[in-house]
Model the fold of this input.
Amino acid sequence: MGFSAIAFFVYAFDKAKAQRGVWRIQESTLHLFALLGGWPRAAVAQQLLRHKSKKREFRTVFWGTVIIIIAGLLWLYLESDGEYLRFLF
Done:
């Protein structure tokens, strides 16, 4: 199971905890899952579960992380003629 699927479950777990009013997962941990490649399903979880979707500061950091990831992948692709990214596809 990749980080993207794990990220979705972490968001769902945190949402359930929020609804019960108990200890929560730190936002930095949610951002770490996004940074490690979990951002696609984390974005889906935000919308589907309506979790962290209204918190502006969180969304700003989240989408900034996504931009950094995409920029890094684009840079790797352009600098290596695609050699470093072949393992992803």
Summary: Helices lie at 3-20, 27-48, 56-80. Residues 3-88 form one domain. The two ends are 16 Å apart (CA to CA). The chain has a mean pLDDT of 85.
